[in-house]
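Trying the structure run again after the queue cleared.
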Amino acid sequence: MFVLTVDQIDSQHTADRVESAVHRLVARHGPLLAAAPERTAGDEFQLATEHGGVALEIALDLVRAGDWSVGLGAGQIDPPRGASVRAMSGSAFVAARDAVTTAKKRSARFAFVAADDRADLRVLDPLIRLLLALRERRTPEGWELFDLLEGDPPLTVTDAAGRLGITVQAASQRALTAGVRLDREAREALSSMLDVESARIGG
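Done. Tokens:
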């Protein structure tokens, strides 16, 4: 099981964003969550899911927004799980708490911690942060193309070029510079690694 503990950055000087974030996550990922995300304290919320790919996607999207410190934890959730995140407990929650504490000290504002501190799991944290470093270098134009190529439904490079009013060659070069393909391949590999871990610990 994966738990995200998410804390709003500089909440004393910005509007509360927890409720709007929770609503967006429910609308997009609701059926794949163990329970609806919930505010846990002040400007913080938590969510849980059995799906590594979903946990990674949510974490990446929250970091991209720039408003959150994101801690992703992997571990067990104690039975009974129930319908409320606030009523849940287990090693996944402890790991997520440790992760968000670390995330607050990092420029990337992200950390991954596994309750089972194996060497093969420790590599996931720097690998995810490498992907975040790639994304930090992406220009607004690169993100614009990324969102078209990786959207729902995804566009082809040709269609995206037409939408943006640029040549196919320019779109292809922009995709290369933005690392769109590498981003996709990294997400697929990381999601697979996380899902293997979820199956090992029994979700």
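The CA atoms of residues 73 and 94 lie 8 Å apart. Worth checking whether this holds up in the mutant runs.
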